Amino acid sequence: MGLSTCLSLGRVGWSQRMGAPSSEEAARHVKEWEEEQRIVEHATELVRRLEVTWHMIETTLTT
């Protein structure tokens, strides 16, 4: 598992346990992320995962 995937999954898992706003929305992506092959060559996808999970964090901090 790559670093960005680990960060993304960690963010979602922690946020779900804390009942954070929009964590369920981000969690919908997890199964897809866990099943994918290595995506090291796909910078766009790596950035997308970090953006999806950052949106969840940002929502938590601003609500």
Automatic annotation (TrEMBL):
- Top-level lineage group: Bacteria
- Mind telling me what this protein is named? Uncharacterized protein
Origin organism lineage: Bacteria, Bacillati, Chloroflexota, Ktedonobacteria, Ktedonobacterales
